[in-house]
Amino acid sequence: MTAAVKRRSRRPKGLTAHIVLVLAVLISVFPFVWTVVMATNTTEDIYKSPPKLTFGSHLLENVRHVLDTIDFFGSMLNTLVVATVTTVLVLFIDSLAAFTFAKFDFPGRKVLFAMLVGFMMLPLQLAVLPQFILMSDIGWVGTLKALTLPALANAFGIFWLRQYIENGVPDELLDAARIDGAGFFRQYWNIALPMIRPALSFLAIYAFVGAWNDYIWPLVVLTDPGHLTLQVALAQLHVGHTTDYSMVMAGVLMASVPLVVVFTLFARGFIAGATEGAVQGT
Length: 282
Known about the structure:
Elements: H1 2-39, H2 43-46, H3 59-69, H4 72-103, H5 109-120, H6 128-137, H7 145-148, H8 155-168, H9 171-179, H10 184-195, H11 197-213, H12 216-221, H13 230-235, H14 245-281
Organism: Streptomyces venetus
Keywords: Cell membrane, Membrane, Transmembrane, Transmembrane helix, Transport
Family: Belongs to the binding-protein-dependent transport system permease family.
């Protein structure tokens, strides 16, 4: 009888939690749904009072306007190249640095890590001028290479992976590998990397989305119209005294598709790895 009473007392709490979660999902999804609504209607429909909240039939027309106004696919290719190269390099360099910080003792280790954490607190805009001067000195201004070099080492990525490696890679495995004659890089490649796949999946999503959505740095350093990234190209849709918001939202919707694909691919590995770790821990 007591157990039944306890189960009944838990039901209102569980119902409240489900209601809160459903509301949170609806609030999170609404901006994307509103983007689709705006992209499928006209700007006149958007300005109506009350605004139109149903899907329209003007998506193809708005997409055609986007393609006629900017070099959408060329800019998307530039962004895809930059985001992919940046993500691969961030995963490699950050995981290598994090493994070193987490499992090896060397002079100045604590000081360097404290400096790394301090750099995370600085606004990214402070680095724009020094980075531009550096890119100008090496002759990379206006090229896509100028977008990848500053993003090679991500302070947050090193911090995130270092915390994960400290608890997720047992010292006993590394000691056994050293006894078998494994060097530093073999320990990193054959032992550490397979065990931190969930953390790498999360970092891949973080790095790719950050590179894909970057606007300030590409706007500053890219001077060749043929090398514009997608965010800079989309900003060119705001022309004249009036803005065709339906066309802008169609461009935003088209630019969001690769992000959804990347999130789906890497989120699957992130969830699978996290579930595997939870099952092994039970």
